[in-house]
Amino acid sequence: MDFRPHGVCSQLIRVDVEDNIVKNVEFIGGCSGNTQGVSRLIRGMDVDEAIARLEGIRCGNKPTSCPDQLAWALKQATGRV
């Protein structure tokens, strides 16, 4: 599933979820090292656990961040929004 984030540098987040497990995450744009790290850390994680850990993280003065937007992408991918 493709998700267009808002308020961050990343332009697109691609998410694959199967049986409520994060199979793969790919960020297009953004801080490459950070987004690759987040993607690898949550691979294989339960979606609910990933959302709980990522939701609400802010980037500087912004009200959101790439991890927060990933939480929104996971919610959308699993029909929680």
Detailed description of the structure:
The chain is an alpha+beta fold. The chain contains 3 helices and 3 strands. Strand 2 and strand 3 form a beta hairpin. Helix 2 (47-54) packs antiparallel against helix 3.
Summarize the structure.
The protein has 81 residues and is of the alpha+beta class. The protein has 3 helices and 3 strands, in the order βββααα. It is globular, with a radius of gyration of 11 Å.
Order of helices and strands: EEEHHH
Mean pLDDT: 97
Instruction: Report low-confidence residues grouped into runs of 5 or more.
Output: none
Largest sheet features: 3 strands, antiparallel
The number of distinct helices, counting runs of at least 4 residues, comes to: 3
Measured by DSSP, the beta-strand proportion falls in 15-25%
Class based on secondary structure composition and strand pairing: alpha+beta
Annotation, overall tally of beta strands: 3
Radius of gyration: 11 Å
Q: Globular, elongated, flat, extended or rod-shaped: what is the shape? A: globular
Secondary structure: helix percent: 25-40%
Strand order in the largest sheet:
1-2-3
| Terminal-residue CA separation | 14 Å
